[in-house]
Structures are given as structure tokens and as C-alpha cells.
Design goal:
This protein is an alpha/beta fold. The protein contains six helices and seven strands, in the order βαβαββαββαβαα. Strands 1, 2, 3, 4, 5, 6 and 7 form a seven-stranded mixed beta sheet that branches. The longest helix has 19 residues. The chain is elongated and about 50 Å long. It starts with 5 loop residues before the first strand and ends in a 5-residue tail after the last helix.
Length: 191
């Protein structure tokens, strides 16, 4: 198999870690694409795939000989999309909304190679136990939720709020590894 330049079009440290765990050699070149979505969506899977493809295609246009991975993760409670919080008060609001409920985490992924793009989306259902107000405040005060969709990181401090996960855990972290493997096989990066 030929060695191909692989680029991750994301600055997410969690996505970098997951690609390293896959044993891949890659570069990180963030796309700079602004993640603008309405606060409600009828088709979040479609929106996540579209944003992931836009990120991958933006970087691929500058590196046409590379294989480029784009990803976008959405946290949805019903039709409501919980993006990255604007500030600590917004993070508190989001965590209160998620407390005691089940929500969806949808990651769109896209792989670009030689002008062609394949896309996929993975959905995982996450249930939070009821969260006490002081727990919400302490978690937000830690600063951890401020750069994460839905205002939480399942792989870190918010793990204590989770009472159930149905589907791909790594999807909630930020990259559905099994589904990405299939796309990278299409691109000739994996056998």
C-alpha cells in the first residue's frame, strides 16, 4: 500500500488522541471553518456530515494530494442543538438541560481524497443522571466544559454524570473510530 499524507482538519486534542490510538501518522491542519448552526435542527445527522465535509474539503483544496479527515460533533436534546457554550453561564444552562435526561451525540465525519469526498454520521445516546446544582457549578468552575459541544467531556470530569451510553463511546469523545476506519479503507489509508 502506498504511503499517503494524512491530514486531520481539526484542532481537537481528543480527535488527535483517537487517531494516535489507531496507530496513524498524520498532520494537524485546522480548517478554520466557522461552526455555525441554528439552535434547532430537523436533520442533525445531515448537518454534521455537511460541516465535516466542508472542513475536510477546505483543507483538501490546499493539499490536493493528501487524504483529509474532517469531523463535527453535535449534542442534541430533542431538536435543540447544544453547541459549545458561549460563557460559563451558558455551560450551566446546558448542563441543567441535560441533567436527568437522554440526549444524542452525533459526529459527522468526512474523508477527502483526490477531489472525492465520502461522508458518514454516527449517533450515540447518552443518559445523564440528575446532577446536583453544586456539581454543575463545580464542573463549570473547572473550565473543562467551555470548549466542548454540550458543555461536557465524557472522557474527563463529566464521566461522573453519565448513567448510560448506548452506541459508540469514542463518538462522544469526538470521533467514531470504527466508522472512520471504513472511510480510511475507502481512501486507501488502511487495509
Amino acid at each position: 500500500m502506498e504511503c499517503q499524507r494524512l491530514i486531520l482538519a481539526s484542532a481537537s486534542p481528543r480527535r488527535r488522541e483517537l487517531l494516535c490510538e489507531m496507530g496513524l501518522e498524520f498532520e494537524v491542519i485546522p480548517s478554520g471553518v466557522e461552526e455555525v448552526l441554528p439552535s434547532t435542527l430537523d436533520h442533525p445527522e445531515r448537518a454534521a456530515k455537511r460541516l465535516a465535509a466542508h472542513k475536510a474539503q477546505t483543507v483538501a483544496s490546499a493539499y490536493p494530494d493528501a487524504v483529509v479527515i474532517g469531523a463535527d460533533t453535535l449534542v442534541c436534546l430533542g431538536r435543540c442543538v447544544l453547541n459549545k457554550p458561549e460563557d460559563p453561564a451558558d455551560a450551566v444552562r446546558m448542563l441543567r438541560l441535560l441533567s436527568g435526561k437522554t440526549h444524542r451525540v452525533i459526529t459527522g465525519i468526512a474523508v477527502c481524497r483526490t477531489g472525492r469526498t465520502v461522508r458518514a454520521a454516527e449517533t450515540t445516546w447518552v443518559t445523564f443522571r440528575p446532577i446536583m446544582e453544586e456539581e454543575v457549578r463545580a464542573y463549570v468552575d473547572s473550565g473543562e466544559p467551555l470548549d466542548k459541544a454540550g458543555a461536557y467531556g465524557i472522557q474527563a470530569g463529566a464521566a461522573r454524570f453519565v448513567s448510560g451510553v448506548r452506541g459508540c463511546y469514542n463518538n462522544v469523545v469526538g470521533l467514531p473510530v470504527a466508522r472512520l476506519r471504513r472511510l480510511l479503507r475507502w481512501a486507501g489509508v488502511l487495509e
